What we know:
The chain has 147 residues and is mostly helical. It is built from 8 helices and no strands.
Amino acid sequence: MFVTAAQTWSDNLSEEERxxxxxxxxxxxxxxxxxxxxxxxxxxxxxTGERFSWRNLQAxxxxxxxxxxxxxxxxxxxxxxxxxxxxxxxxxxxxxxxLGPNVMALGVSVTTRRPGQVHRWHVDVEHLKWAGISAxxxxxxxxxxxx
Length: 147
């Protein structure tokens, strides 16, 4: 489901990566998922219906029943395949080399973007209070899922 550790392993950022992060605010891309991994993430998310959608955000804020209306950024708490994805060394080791050893996945969500569509540059509100990094995992819907 994931590319091999040899393809992704990095116990530290290179000097060039650190300079790029400082200059541009982002790094990558790095290999993470195999075609089967993309398929598994997509299927897990598709099977949840509206549970984790932005449209469900108001309901999750107004409800104390987080099983019915979970926080839209809590995919990793409900869908093990998402927790497994964000726990991969390809992500974690790079984050640790920037933030230090005490890291956690606070939020995992899915955002749909069409080719060429802009995702505006921003800071997630959580990062205004503490140091954090957002990791984007680009998925392309496998053709067999579209059939």
